[in-house]
Structure formats: C-alpha cells, structure tokens
Amino acid sequence: MHRVAADPIDLLRTRTSAKWTSYDPDVLPLPVAEMDYPLAEPIAEALHVAVRRSDTGYNRGSRPVAEAFAEFAAQRLGWEPDPGRVTCTADVSMGIVEVLRRVVEPGDRVIINPPIYPPFFDLVTEAGATVLEVPLAGGIDDGWSLDLAGIEAAFADGARAMVLCNPHNPVGHVHSRDDLAALADLAARFGVAIVSDEVHGPLAQPGSPYVPFLTVSDAAREHGIAITAASKAFNLAGLKAAMILTASERGDDVRAKLPYEVEWRMGQFGAIASIAAFRHGAYWLDGVLASIDDNRRLLVDLLADLLPGVRYRMPDASYLAWLDLSALGWGDDPAERALAQARVALASGPGFGAEAGRGHARLNLACSPEVLSEAITRLADAR
Length: 383
Prior knowledge:
alpha/beta, 4-stranded antiparallel sheet
C-alpha cells in the first residue's frame, strides 16, 4: 500500500491555519483535527482551475455535491444515499444545530456520550436544548461501546434526542451494527431523533469499516438524520461544505423546515473541493489511511519505550489518539503540563467531559513519524 507523506515541518509552519498560528514557533501543535499531509492533487487542481476562471460566486445548490457523495458512499462505505434527500450547509456543526432546532423544543434534554468532541456541549445549548451526558461504556483497556441501558433510561426519563458521534471522536471507536440497530430501536420506541455526526466515517481503517447509521434498519432510517462532509477525510475544514442526509418522510420533513439560508451557507470552494474529493480522491485517501495506520502503531511502540505508564488504545477510525496520562501525575488537565514543559500542544482532556476527560489528552496522529516521535520524546523528558 502506498503512503502519503506529511509535509516538512518548515513548510507546515508557513501555513496560516489555526493549528500553525496558535502557538509559539517552538511548540509541536498536535491538538487540532487538521492533517499535515499535502492536499490531494485532484482537489488542488479543481480549486486552481476555479480561481483561474474567477469562479468565486455562490454555490449552485446541494445536488452536485450530493451526487458525488452518493457515488463515493456506494463505492467505499456500503451506503447508497439518495441525492434527492440531501441538503448541504457550511459544516457539520452548523448542520447539527439546525437539525436539533427542528427536532426538539427549547429546554429539551439531548444526550451526548463523553468523552466527546467538545463543541457537542455547545451545539446542544446553541440549539436551545439541555445537555444530558450518558458516557460511553468501557474504556481504554477493553474498548468502548454505547451505554444502551443508560441511553434507554435517559429516553424513558424524557430526553428527546441524541447526538451520535459515528465513528466516535476522540476515542476512534467504530460503533457496531448491533449497537446502532439497538439504538435505532430505542429511538423508535420512545419517538426520539438520532442526529448522527459521521464526518470521520471515511477515515475508518479497512479492518474496522464504519457502519452508516441510516443503513442499519428501518427504525434508523425513520428516526435518524446523518450529517457528514469531506472535511475531515480530505482536510478541507476551511472550505465549508457539509451534508444533511435523510432516508424517510419524517427526516425529509425536518430538512424541508430548514431555513432557506442553511443551504446557501455552503461555500463555492467547499462544493468544488468536495466533488473533486469524492470523485477523484480515493487513491490519496488510501495513502493517508496507510500513513495513519503506521503512526497509530508507532505510537504503541513509542509509549511502551518512553512512557510506559501512559495508556492508549489504537483508534479504529480517525487520526486522533486518546491518551490516559494519569500515571504521570500531571493533574486533571495534563495538556497544560505538556505545553508548558514539553512544548507539545495537545487537546485538553476535560474539554471532552469533566469526568470522562480527567487526566486525559487527545493527540493528532496525522503528522510525520518524526514529529510524532519528537512529541513523545519531549513528553517523556518532561516527567
């Protein structure tokens, strides 16, 4: 399998994105979910061509992106979404908020599953709802799963929706078809909505393919709404294009009630880049997955050699590593010590949930092996 090599560190430091401008020059920045790999050439070419023709106006609607994604999903994900049941918007977070506003009432409780992508807490409240935490079951030693009993109890007590992270960020867990089907059955029994963030789906490793929620059952199609994008798999977060997908009349009604401007928030360059990614980016993505696989395995060896007390379970999806640094004695938020003394920026664990994230931090694996090795060496030297 071919690999895509990360850009040299000197070139990376000329980037102007948040990852490379938020810290002093001596810091290795590994908190933000942004890859260090060069942009896929078909995407770069599509954007260059668009600039040369001054194609910087409004997007032309959801259908072109939806059709390209449908082809990609059928070929790689075992999913055949209907392009006519897609509404595009700027990004996955915006899609989550807009959908929640249509499926819950102000003050309703919405389930999330810590440790969880920190913005989930804010997205629920932005939609006018109240966060209800039902942490993942299991952990680093035995693996994670949805706490179906806890979710059932929360629905029975009145929670009206759940924001699912599939695959799960930060732990890289790929939810099983059985767990997703059981979740869909609960949604049907209690008449609630499952809003499924699937942006990390294309980043599942070949041995652990992700299961799109809308494919698992009629109940999932009836009560689920999926939101995804090319942004994580192809490193396009700054270009602003995402999709809200449905597979039932109930879901279609939610999309129909979205404000007119939701679709127009998608950027023209985001649409152009997404179409190029879905149609012509597979070879690049395979190389990136192989490079991530190398790094997730390298991290096992680095920790064993240099930080044997740190616990880590290789992620089955994404390029994010969830580290339990409790044994180092660096307090509730070890990312603070990592930055101050090791000059390594990690994502703060408590931000993923005060309890579930205590003593933890998230590290970005989508970098060169040399940067990863340097980061772990620095952390070990800071003990």
